Write the structure tokens for this entry.
Amino acid sequence: MAGAHGGAGTSTLAALLPAAWDMGPIRPLLELGRSPLRAKGRPVVLAVRNTAVAAKHATAAIGALSDWDERVSALAIVSDGGTESRDATARFALLEGRVGGVVRVPHVRALRLVDDPCLVDLPGKARQALDELRRLAGTSTGRGW
């Protein structure tokens, strides 16, 4: 689990997907010209917010990971509570063919109000998004990757 930028929801998703490692944002490593991560065959889920500027960061991250022979199993587009702009949607559409799948994770206000995301009773759409992320990462259960 890596973030295309800071504040992408990486730590929250890692907490909700047991056995996922929170690699944090990879953007600072891109700026240093270093490999953003080495998955060594493990699935990579890239988290990104649902804004146009975040889509730009996701494009750069996916390009860099590809340059380092890493494949993104899933692009998790995490809603910040606002509407996704047409520009963001168009940019994300261009990334669909470069990743295993795209999953839109809905905004869940309660996640911002707790220290432990696992304590939140997630709505059905959020549970479905997590299930889809698990599927794309190669597992079908809620017990890790």
